[in-house]
């Protein structure tokens, strides 16, 4: 056990969504009197409205708690971690800023996949783990069962697993004591050249980019000229300070401390998560683990009204100021007009960005189905990154194509092992390992193509296990795939927005499904419209939208020609809102419905 | 039957009688059941409206009168006769003018039809709708198949040599075979004229509510198209000319009044909600029968509104009206590429400098107008 000589403890809370992390944080704030009771509100840490509504935490934050134990003052820095698979990298950086982590498990639910994945991250980062069973006040709590699973997973003796209730406060004091007694104080050289880790950054409309930092070595003073080591960007930083939980300015942050830095830059891409901050004219080794944010999922975003293209560009520019992971490039679709091919960390990130564009910027969007980035090796060694299925090369013009894989962790009641394995195999998964956490619950690890995951995998997993299975995954590089592009044609014209790259074995079924769906969505025209799916030049599925035969106002209303004309004018207005693909008129709603993959993009419960 | 040769400047008069015995499930016309107490005030008001409107139509020859509704025959033949008489007094009515009265079979009998004929009604338009009892019931019509036959016989006996039947196709449960049976039965009565309307579900009607609530399916447009084609085939085969989208007539028996709407002839509308058209202005009366009566009691014209369609709107109107006619429209009214496309699809034919829609083309008249304007 670490001796308590240093007054700082930096720790995170690892838990599955809904297992009570935010409520526990609220109790910490109360116990340490960090927030006056009248200001206390539920889930204090979740700042953005969007997060509050979705009940999730997207952005990591750090809160400084002043805590007295046995007459000694301590500073406890609670580093909050994002709770979604899209933000695994951000989680890893937040963990890197801490020395220990509370592993919080719901007494009624037991360990879930996300807990497991983040536990592995914390373990790899060398953190001290404090296991705790939460919600022991629940009638359906199985405290001993959950504690047994935790002991099995972590090797911590079962009787050292704490029992708490974030709701009633029971055991929370003991947990804080354990944070002080069992988590080691930060190490680091206060006299060495300054190195601080950026574990999150946000854009504040008044102060520009604010970086959340953990000072590892040396001192980070207010009003210093600093340099971001990876990007090489230098800036005159403004103040430093801590969140207690409201921001409090300080003269400096020293080794071991966690706080914020008002960077003086206006764009979060100049202060990226994982980067190292040092003082100008100082040469340091960067802290390990920096990685460029890498979009995993792409989608074409198009304004429903073509005139809103400039507004969409401005909105994306604005969002990018506080979202370094958001990337976009102009895209022209024959079917949907001008828009942007946009890259996201994952499905939730995609959903959040789309929602913000619609809600905060008032845009009406059509989004293409999400797709992954493909690496296409051409003859001669050149590799293309393909972000848009309609740009996928035709077979014969490239050597091979690689697609991104993930290592997925699935936790399921063992009764549902069969359906889970069936689903994973159907999705081209290969099993990497399996172990029983208890006779009733099993952890399975699969290597899976990411493309299969973003296509309704989670929903299928949930419905195959009556909602009991949980899923987490992390990127696992690229592997060659036997992939083909499936094009959809209306009346012989390919509709680029509907193109998809899928595995050869599934291409025909995919084509058939889309053709059937489109047949229902394309309104009847004056002529038969062939709806076809093609692989290369070969048609693999076809349906026909029969020509419309009747569109006329049968009766004249006693000379009321005005009414007839107005009906027709209304019909003409409706037609103006159609998009024309070749000779076929397609309503917006058809695009939106056809492009809606049956994925719930997630949020709580993913 | 003899009709005046309509000349440019001739006009028609429409009289709207807003009363019905019951309200049919599909009907969204300005028609009301249970307003019997308004009948005589209405006739009074209408006669006043004739007086007020007539001066501005001086010098215009009237070639047709159409008593429509509603069900005009809910009024007595005397009342209807007094309206026709007043019109004859105040307007320059052609001696051989077409004077049509709409009738519901259950509101007429041999004596009443005879009196109507005597009071100058020349043409009877009978709302038969169907000869299939199940279809009549689906349409919420109260009359029976046999009363249609009887009414037509009575009309003939009363001396009507110009009888038209209205039919509706596409009601719930109606099959193509049932519709063909209705056509055959209608033909067996030897009408001079037939109007066949595709059932349209209108909002605010009992059928419209059922469809909106999902209690009933809307008519299948393909089945209605089949029914329309069956009408074209059967009626054409029986010697009727398909002179307008929904209308067939024996040679020479086309409705002069209705043709006036399609060809842009001026018309005066009298009665609640009735529409007038003259010199580029469309004007309409207040819809409410009560307010209509009230205004005329006070000696005021019951105008509800008017508009002067823009040149673009007029062009669209001319096209949507003209394309309903067998004779079609001058070829210059359609963009060449649109016309060529219609020819190629068999939706229209070229006819001596004119473009006329074919039978399948007429069913798509809205689309044709939209692609041309």
Provide an overview of this structure.
The complex is a heterodimer of chains A (606) and B (373). Chain A is α+β, with helices and mostly antiparallel strands. The longest helix of chain A is centred in the C-terminal third of the chain and has 18 residues, at 504-521. The model of chain A is unreliable at 1-5, 47-60 and 598-606 (pLDDT under 50). Chain B is an alpha/beta fold. In chain B, a hairpin with a 2-residue loop joins β16 (348-351) and β17 (354-357). Chain B is globular. Chain B starts with 10 loop residues before the first strand and ends with a helix. The interface between A and B is medium-sized, with 25 and 44 residues.
What is the CA-CA span between the terminal residues of chain B? 39 Å
The tally of helices of chain B reads 14
* C-alpha termini separation of chain A: 36 Å
Mean pLDDT of chain A: 87
In the predicted model, the low-confidence regions of chain B spanning at least 5 consecutive residues are: none
Radius of gyration of chain A: 27 Å
Task: Assign an overall shape of chain A.
Answer: globular
Q: Count the E strands of chain A.
A: 34
Beta-strand content bin of chain B: 15-25%
Which stretches of chain A of 5+ consecutive residues score pLDDT under 50?
1-5, 47-60, 598-606
Mean pLDDT of chain B: 94
Give the number of DSSP strands of chain B. 17
Oligomer: heterodimer
Radius of gyration of chain B: 20 Å
Helices of chain A, by number, come to 14
Residues in helices of chain A, as a percent range? 25-40%
Please specify the SSE layout and strand pairing.
The complex is a heterodimer of chains A (606) and B (373).
Chain A: E1 8-15, H1 21-31, H2 49-54, E2 62-69, E3 72-79, H3 88-96, E4 100-106, H4 113-124, E5 128-134, H5 143-154, E6 162-163, H6 172-182, E7 195-204, E8 208-217, E9 219-221, E10 225-228, E11 234-236, E12 240-243, E13 247-250, E14 252-254, E15 258-262, E16 276-279, E17 297-303, H7 309-321, E18 327-333, E19 337-344, H8 347-361, E20 365-367, E21 371-372, E22 374-377, E23 383-386, E24 400-413, H9 417-426, E25 430-438, E26 441-449, H10 450-453, H11 457-464, E27 470-480, E28 483-490, E29 493-494, E30 500-503, H12 504-521, E31 529-535, E32 538-545, H13 561-576, E33 578-581, E34 584-587, H14 588-595
Parallel strand pairs in A: 1-3, 1-4, 4-5, 5-6
Antiparallel strand pairs in A: 2-3, 7-8, 7-16, 8-15, 9-14, 10-11, 10-16, 12-13, 12-15, 17-19, 17-20, 17-21, 18-19, 22-23, 22-24, 24-26, 24-27, 25-26, 28-29, 28-30, 28-31, 31-32, 33-34
Helix pairs in contact in A: 12-14
Chain B: E1 11-17, E2 19-20, E3 32-33, H1 39-53, E4 61-69, H2 77-90, E5 92-103, H3 110-118, E6 123-129, H4 133-138, H5 145-157, E7 163-169, H6 176-188, E8 193-198, H7 206-212, H8 221-237, E9 241-244, E10 247-249, H9 256-263, E11 267-270, E12 275-278, E13 281-285, H10 289-297, E14 303-307, H11 311-322, E15 329-330, H12 336-345, E16 348-351, E17 354-357, H13 359-362, H14 365-372
Helix pairs in contact in B: 1-2, 1-10, 2-3, 6-8
């Amino acid at each position: 056990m670490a001796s308590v000589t240093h007054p700082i403890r930096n720790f995170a809370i690892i838990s599955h969504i809904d297992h009570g992390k935010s409520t526990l944080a609220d109790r910490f704030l109360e116990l340490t009197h960090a927030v006056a009771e009248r200001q206390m509100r539920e889930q204090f840490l979740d700042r953005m409205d969007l997060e509050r509504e979705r009940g999730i935490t997207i952005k990591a934050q750090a809160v400084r708690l002043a805590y007295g134990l046995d007459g000694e003052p301590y500073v406890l820095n609670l580093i909050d971690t994002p709770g979604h698979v899209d933000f695994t990298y951000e989680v890893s950086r937040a963990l890197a800023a801490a020395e220990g982590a509370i592993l919080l498990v719901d007494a009624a639910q037991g360990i879930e996949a996300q807990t497991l994945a983040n536990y592995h991250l914390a373990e790899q980062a060398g953190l001290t783990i404090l296991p705790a069973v939460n919600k022991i006040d629940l009638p359906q709590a199985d405290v001993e069962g959950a504690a047994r699973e935790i002991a099995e997973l972590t090797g911590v003796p079962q009787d050292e697993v704490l029992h708490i209730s974030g709701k009633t406060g029971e055991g929370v004091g003991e947990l804080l004591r354990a944070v002080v007694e069992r988590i080691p104080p930060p190490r680091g050289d206060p006299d060495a050249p300054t190195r601080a880790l950026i574990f999150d950054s946000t854009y504040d409309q008044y102060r520009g980019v604010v970086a959340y930092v953990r000072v590892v070595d040396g001192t980070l003073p207010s009003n210093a000229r600093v340099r971001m080591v990876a990007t090489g960007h230098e800036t005159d930083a403004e103040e430093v300070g801590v969140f207690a939980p409201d921001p409090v300015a300080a003269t400096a942050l020293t080794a071991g401390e966690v706080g914020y830095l008002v960077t003086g830059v206006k764009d979060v891409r100049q202060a990226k998560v994982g980067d190292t901050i040092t003082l100008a004219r100082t040469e340091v080794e960067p802290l390990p683990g920096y990685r460029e944010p890498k979009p995993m999922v792409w989608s074409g975003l198009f304004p429903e009204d073509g005139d809103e293209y400039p507004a969409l560009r401005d909105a994306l520019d604005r969002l990018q100021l506080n979202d370094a992971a958001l990337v976009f490039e102009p895209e022209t679709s024959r079917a949907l007009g001008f828009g942007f091919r946009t890259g996201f960390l994952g499905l939730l990130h995609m959903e959040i960005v789309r929602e913000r564009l619609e809600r905060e910027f008032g845009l009406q969007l059509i989004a293409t189905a999400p797709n992954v980035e493909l690496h296409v090796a051409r003859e001669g060694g050149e590799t293309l990154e393909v972000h848009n299925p309609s740009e996928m090369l035709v077979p014969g013009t490239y050597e091979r194509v690689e697609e991104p894989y993930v290592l997925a962790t699935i936790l399921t009641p063992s009764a549902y092992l069969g359906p889970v394995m069936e689903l994973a195999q159907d999705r081209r998964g290969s099993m990497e390992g399996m172990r029983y956490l208890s006779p009733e619950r099993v952890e399975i690890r699969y290597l899976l193509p990411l493309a299969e995951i973003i296509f309704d995998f989670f929903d299928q997993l949930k419905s195959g296990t009556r909602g009991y299975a949980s899923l987490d995954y992390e990127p696992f590089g690229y592997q060659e795939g036997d992939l083909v592009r499936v094009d959809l044609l209306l009346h012989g014209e390919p509709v680029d927005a509907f193109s998809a790259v899928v595995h050869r074995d599934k291409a025909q079924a995919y084509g058939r499904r889309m053709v059937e769906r489109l047949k229902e969505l394309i309104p009847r025209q004056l002529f038969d419209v062939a709806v076809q799916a093609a692989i290369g030049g070969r048609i693999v599925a076809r349906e026909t939208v029969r020509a419309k035969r009747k569109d006329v106002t049968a009766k004249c209303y006693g000379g009321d020609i005005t009414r007839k004309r107005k009906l027709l004018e209304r019909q003409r207005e409706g037609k103006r809102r159609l998009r024309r693909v070749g000779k076929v008129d397609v309503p917006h709603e058809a695009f939106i419905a056809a492009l809606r993959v049956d994925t719930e993009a997630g949020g709580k419960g993913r | 039957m003899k009709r005046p040769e309509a000349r440019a400047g001739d006009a028609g008069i429409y009289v709207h009688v807003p009363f019905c015995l019951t309200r049919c499930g599909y009907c969204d016309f300005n028609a009301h059941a249970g307003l019997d107490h308004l009948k005589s005030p209405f006739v009074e008001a209408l006669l006043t409206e004739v007086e007020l409107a007539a001066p501005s139509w001086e010098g215009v020859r009237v070639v047709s009168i159409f008593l429509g509704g509603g069900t005009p025959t809910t009024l007595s033949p005397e009342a209807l006769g007094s309206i026709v008489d007043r019109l004859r007094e105040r307007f320059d009515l052609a001696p051989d003018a077409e004077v049509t009265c709409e009738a519901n079979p259950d509101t007429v009998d041999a004596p009443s039809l005879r009196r109507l004929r005597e009071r100058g009604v020349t043409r009877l338009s009978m709302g038969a709708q169907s000869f299939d009892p199940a279809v009549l019931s689906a349409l919420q019509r109260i009359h029976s198949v046999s009363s249609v036959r009887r009414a037509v016989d009575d009309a003939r006996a009363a001396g009507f040599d110009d009888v038209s039947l209205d039919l509706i196709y596409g009601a719930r449960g109606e099959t193509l075979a049932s519709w063909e049976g209705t056509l055959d039965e209608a033909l067996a009565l030897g009408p001079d004229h037939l109007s066949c309307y595709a059932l349209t579900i209108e909002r605010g009607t009992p059928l419209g509510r059922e469809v909106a609530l999902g209690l009933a399916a809307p008519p299948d447009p393909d089945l209605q198209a089949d029914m329309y084609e069956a009408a074209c085939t059967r009626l054409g085969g029986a010697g009727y000319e398909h002179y307008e989208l929904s209308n067939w007539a024996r040679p020479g028996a086309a409705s002069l009044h209705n043709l006036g709407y399609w060809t842009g002839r001026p018309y005066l509308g009298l009665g609640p909600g009735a529409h007038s058209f003259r010199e580029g202005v469309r004007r309409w009366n207040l819809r409410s029968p009560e307010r209509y009566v009230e205004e005329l009691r006070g000696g005021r014209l019951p105008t509800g509104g008017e508009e002067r369609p823009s040149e673009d709107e007029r062009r669209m109107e001319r096209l949507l009206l003209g394309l309903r006619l067998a004779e079609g429209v001058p070829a210059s009214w359609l963009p060449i590429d649109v016309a060529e496309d219609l020819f190629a699809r068999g939706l229209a034919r070229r006819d001596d400098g004119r473009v006329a829609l074919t039978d399948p083309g007429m069913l798509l008249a809205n689309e044709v107008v939209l692609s041309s304007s």
